[in-house]
Amino acid sequence: MSDKGILFVVSAPAGCGKDTILNELFKRVDSVGYAVSATTRAPREGEVDGVHYCFLTREQFEQKISENEVLEYTEYCGNYYGTLRKSVEGLLSQGKDAILKIEVEGAMNIRNKFPEARLVFILPPSWEVLEHRLRNRGTETEDKIRERIAQARTELDFARNYDYLIVNDDLEAAVDDLVCVLRAEKLRKEHNNALLDSFK
């Protein structure tokens, strides 16, 4: 049994199904927890503080930045979004694996602060499939779709810096692959010192 939890960072361009994959993962694996992000934006209808986000004032967020309590953050549309150190370390100290769902630049910042973190990038089967999925949403303008595809190309440049690549061509297979990644990491010897010590 592993000594403590492992931090996993999951990134993917829009339309690659990361939310669906993670929702399925949480149904299957109870030793994994979601590290809730923090934001300064107002809660939307139905959102619960501490479940969907940790909602902070701008002053509170900036104080946490100055006290090194924020592992990574970005400012988007006038609001801060970021990962609180305590949300990650709380899960890890309980022996749970922590899942962070963040964009690629945030993932690189996490790697700098948590070199032991494992980074997983979810890919579409092809550019054509990604474009088809974005169009099938029926929620975005043509300009927005082109913008998302351009953003995806930028994000894919970072994929070479990740430890694992999962292609979401089939949901069940993609979830299986992610479960395999989690299991393989738990079997690494550096996560099983207590097990080795029990044989002394």
Report on the architecture of this protein.
- Strands 2-7-1-8-9 form a five-stranded parallel sheet, with helices on both faces. Strands 4-3-6-5 form a four-stranded mixed sheet.
- The chain contains eight helices and nine strands.
- The protein has helices spanning 18-28, 58-66, 85-93, 104-113, 127-137, 142-156, 171-186, 193-197; strands spanning 7-11, 32-34, 37-39, 54-55, 70-76, 79-84, 97-101, 118-123, 164-167.
- It has 200 residues and is of the alpha/beta class.
- The chain is globular.
- A hairpin with a 2-residue loop joins strand 5 and strand 6.
- Helix content is 43%, strand content 20%.
- The longest helix has 16 residues, at 171-186.
What gyration radius follows from the Cα positions, in whole Å? 18 Å
Give the amount of beta strand, in percent: 15-25%
Compute the average pLDDT.
90
Task: Please provide the count of β strands.
Answer: 9
* Global shape: globular
What pattern of helices and strands is seen along the backbone? Answer: EHEEEHEEHEHEHHEHH
Poorly predicted runs of 5 or more residues: none
Helical content, roughly? 40-55%
Question: Helical stretch count?
Answer: 8
Give the strand order, joined by hyphens, for the main sheet: 2-7-1-8-9
